[in-house]
Amino acid sequence: ATSPDVITLTDLATGRYAKIVPVVTEVGRLLAGDLDALVHLLPGLPEVYWSYGYRVGPRGLGGAPPERRSSLAGQRLGTMALAGTAPVEREEPFASHPKEIREHELVASYLVESLAALGRVERGAREILRLGSLVHFHSRLAVELESPARVDHLVATLHPTPALGVLPRTPENLARLAAYRTEAGAPHRFGAPFGLQVDGVFHGVVGIRHICWRDRTVLLPSGCGLLPESDPVREWRELALKRESVKRLFGV
Length: 252
Description:
The protein is α+β, with helices and mostly antiparallel strands. 31% of the residues lie in helices and 34% in strands. The relative contact order is 0.23.
């Protein structure tokens, strides 16, 4: 059978996708200790991360993404575009790397266009966000909504963005992306929205940079943005760097 990676690279080369985010998952088994301890670590993580976690029966998840998908207070919506990744020691060449800039701008432009249907959009400058061993591009966005909006409607409008999904964002392409990830063994919860409302303000993140488990089987997924000009070796290293950053964060 043809592997998902081969299909993805072929479709990029033929122009089917402008961008797609495959996922690689590291699988392990707990030999000692209690995985619930990962969730208990979350309150002590640096404030720059938007940590989240839960456990339901034998399943659990603990994560600390660098990206806040949304905050909604009244009719003021805040979100951000976060795309483009490099090791911190490569920050200088990263800042002017054409592929990384284009990847970020694809995500930011998609968000601006999607949010413009809801109200007046304000976009901040593209900046570098330093997170431990990694650096990313990020741009803050805010929208004054023309009318009150339900959280589920906003999630459906934004999710998945090209930061975690595929462009063009058609039903067929989304279905193919889901099939690729299933065949590759990616957890279904990777990239899923996660949020809660506190004192009338909704805060939401996307489910990345996490460790999830069922019983004693542990999964650590990571994704990267592939563009037609991507270097497969560079992207493979990025996938490993993201997983290593999660391991360091949680001390595993």
